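Entry for the shared binder. Reason: the reviewer on the internal report wants the predicted structure included alongside the sequence.
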Amino acid sequence: MAPDKERHTPFLTSLIAGGMAGTTVDLALFPIDTLKTRLQSPQGFVAAGGFRGVYRGIMAAAAGSSPGAALFFGTYETMKPFIANLQSTYRGEEASSPALTHMVAASVGEAAACLVRVPTEVVKSKMQTNAAGASSLSETFKLVVSEKDGRAFGSQVFGGLYRGYGITLMREVPFAFIQFPLYERLKVEWAKLQGFETSPLQAATCGSFSGGVAAAFTTPLDVVKTRLMLGSDKNGVKYYGANDVIGRILKEEGTSVFLSGIQPRVMWISIGGFVFFGAY
């Protein structure tokens, strides 16, 4: 294979490899994710649990990790050639943009993955921050499903399971816009430089770097997502949408809060990116 040509992974291979890689990363690095979530919680790091019980919620993460990652990569690899062909048809081969292909494919992949990822994130976040009533996975699930107050998509059916779906997409789409074109471009340029296709270790390095950059830039959206999924502030006053979260943070806590948890988030996603893309 020429080094400037990217490969298109078959759907089934993407599904299996993506699922296995996602599960490995999420479970191995779960304590870092817990610390990040607690740093972003409205009650503060210590009140949310500090360094105690950093594996709370890991079963929720395990339940959603594999299907979420598999859905993302299966959709991503399926959409790449489809979008590339659309570009070739309507814009011509010379005018086609590989970066646009990767961005659109990744965005569609994120929309699909969030159908699984968001419910597990909501349950996991409540358990990680020791929310009232979140004593076990089953109890937390029942608690979230009982929240039929109209603050989440389909709340009359799913309760609060999809609370934060919109802001999660708003976080994941720019994340994917940064990470995947950068990841693909780094692999292509590295392959050109050495004259042959990148090795799994080199691909892992590209994934680590691109993930860390994307994580840093999207941390403010991640903070809003965490607050919205937790559902209320430190006084128990409910959040009503992303604009409400942003407005109350600016009024009550200041702009620095939007960077809460940036260090563990960048660390987690950089390490995770290395493992994830190396395995994938």
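Summary line for the report: The two ends are 18 Å apart (CA to CA).
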